[in-house]
Amino acid sequence: MKRSFLYLLFLTTVFFSCENKDDTVFEESADVRLNAALASYEKQLVEAPYGWNAVIYPGGGGSYGFYFKFDDKNRVTMYSDFSDAAAAKSKESSYRLKAMQTPSLIFDTYSYLHVLADPDNEVNGGTLGEGLKSDFEFSIYGDSLSEDRMAFVGRKNQSRLVLTKATQAQATAYTNGDLAKAVLFNNISKYIPYFKRVTLGANTYEITVNQNTRTIKMTWLNGNVPKTFTTSYYFNPTGVAFVSPLVNGSQTITGFTNITWNANSTQVGFSGGGASGVVVSAIKPLSVDLAAARRWWQAPVESGGDWRSSMGFHVNGVDDAFKVNDLKDDQGRPYWFYMYSPAFNPQYDAFAPIFNDEDGIYLDNGHAPAKPTFTADGRAVFTQLGTFGVIPAGGAVDKSGDLLFDPAGFYLIQTSDETYDMVSAKDAKSWITWE
Amino acid sequence: MKTIFRHFTHCIIAALLAGMTSCKEEGLGNVDDIPGLGGDVWAEGPIDKWIQDSLVAPYNISAKYKWDQFEFGNMTKNLVPPDESQVIPLLSTIKKAWTTPYVEEAGKVFYNKYSPKFFILSGSNEYNVESGSITLGTAEGGRKVILFGVNLFKIKGMQGYDPGRDSSFVKDWFLHTIHHEFGHILHQTVFYPVEYKNISKAYYQGGNWINWSDAAARRDGFITAYSSSSFDEDFVEMIAMMLTEGRAGFDKIVNSIPEGTSPSGVTKAQAQAALRQKEAIIVAYYKNTWKIDFYSLQTKVRTSMNKLF
């Protein structure tokens, strides 16, 4: 019985195994269609007569402007807004299309695009081992393509790369060095005071640029009500392009054009929202966040932490002006960070450099401020109650203390949920970043 | 008799079934042009021609400089491809300081038989962020060698060359890696004399090598910290260090071992004797096994390196 059952099983295989008909849903095989797709994508890239404007949004954040010109010999020439040199001088490298899990575009030798993805943090200021988490291998999805626009997704870090067909005028602008002129906008970091304003038509905006995250924050007053708007930005040959436009009543700003830079007067100028203006410095915020100083002091008291600054004070355009990073304690331990600890004990706060070694962290000398006074106009004013240890006269700690106890006090500018810039109310030329 | 017959019938039925199941043989039919079959293709440029003429034709060695994620073992790492301007300087350096000396000493037949055949280049280093280390190169099965950090490579005549920094970088990085990996191929082909293992037997560190400095390892009779990880690594680290440092450089390292006894209880004399015994075994191994005069090879490697830096 068992055996005949086995034979029956054998027989069933006989009847099924010879069914051998290929019925495909598509008229052509997958390979034929894949080859056709790859060829058509390459054709589209190559046949744009004036190349492509490109913006990449790395997985790690930010937005960066590029220009690509592909040829039919697997070569690509590009400009990039990442550095002055890359904006001014083109670089040629190679690319190819390849069938992977999806049809893919690979920039397969080093180019300006790879600078963002380089895991060496010294190349791009990103994270060691990851860089800015960008991409140079992209998946192509047919439904993200149109005649004038191609959008790709990075295979490793899911960066977005968007290509739009360039015009003859745009191509000429790149070769004429217009992108290099646009990145002159970066000189806005050379203003000595912290606060910068620009008047465009009827509106005055406070402008705060973060070049590391590629964001611009604009603040203005609607009557007496402060309004803020933050956008990512990148550069193209006409200037600064906003990823999302600022709409303020009848004024819409999509970016800045006609960028100018006067090195003698240290002034950046541009057009935007149908008007032109020059960026001027200011010694106080356009709109003071009156509660910020108190909030800043209270936050660590509630969470049990402290405020830390790796760089100490920035003064007159110089980072770490007092060279706190060179400090060593009496045992020769290296500097770790500068601390402001509100309510260090019931009587006073602490403002001092912290040193560390394998075994622990150390406070060697520093200042003991009283709890700051919070003025009605939003400043925090610090006064000295005592000191910790012996502060070497004329050293970094001494100078940092002198600045902290300036009678004009400081504005606290909240830059993110957990970071503040503390800016001198005297002239806005000194500040310290707390995180 | 009856039982045998019954078995026969079973066999016949089985054979019959087998015959029925095997369908009519068909040809492969229409095979489409499968994308990427036979490797990627691109319009060839001067670098491709240089590789063809200088490595593929004479030595049957290929070098892949265009990005291919799947050549790299660890897919989770962020890497970038090499800059095209770096490819020929790097490969010609390897050729001068590794290929040519071996070909001159041992002949093309030897070299072509044992040399790794695939070089894969990465522009950036491979960072191991958790351990704080960097991978310089890897080798797989004696056939494939991956070199990292190609974009950081600089030799005399290249823009931004700094003799102090770059010569030791290229020596310790690329050339050391190649000679190290080739050493593995040699001992995996013909094993080295077992006496080698007895020289420092008690002092190998295994995986703990990473916590050692080269200086500390030398006091125990190892040429580098990595040497102390296992017998085989010790053997090939010795080869790599002796070739890239040259005889004078190697002597200098041996002579610089400080007085006193190491924490493991090895005296200066014992550490030096261990390194000298290892050297002697390697020289004899090259002579007896591969008919290579090691000191002559060492001179040729060093001479070519001196020209590059």
From TrEMBL, chain A:
InterPro entries: DUF4302
Pfam families: DUF4302
Domain of life of the organism encoding this protein: Bacteria
Protein name: DUF4302 domain-containing protein
Native source organism of the sequence: Dyadobacter soli
Top-level taxonomy: Bacteria, Pseudomonadati, Bacteroidota, Cytophagia, Cytophagales
From TrEMBL, chain B:
Domain of life, per lineage: Bacteria
Coiled coil: none
GO molecular function: hydrolase activity
A Pfam family annotated for this UniProt entry: Peptidase_Mx1
Keyword Zinc assigned: no
Keyword Hydrolase: yes
Keywords from the named record: Hydrolase, Lipoprotein
InterPro entries: LP_HExxH_w_TonB
Annotated protein name in UniProt: Substrate import-associated zinc metallohydrolase lipoprotein
Species this protein is from: Dyadobacter soli
Taxonomic placement: Bacteria, Pseudomonadati, Bacteroidota, Cytophagia, Cytophagales
